[in-house]
Amino acid sequence: MVSGDDRPVLWRVVYNGQTNRMGGAWDAGPWHPDRERVEHFAAWLRSMGHRAEVQHNGTPASRS
Hints:
Distance between the termini: 27 Å
Order of helices and strands: EEHE
Number of strands: 3
Largest sheet: 3 strands, antiparallel
Structural class: alpha+beta
Strand content: 15-25%
């Protein structure tokens, strides 16, 4: 898949690195071309109690 400016669409996990931290800094994993793999890793982080969202290189992640 290619976006309007001919860049490949890439995905990454944006997450809060500590389980009980309500605000503060967010960390981001490396960009990856496989959305399913990134979604799986985000789900794994959530199962460990972290806040995690998936972001692609065309839109910022929602951090609600």
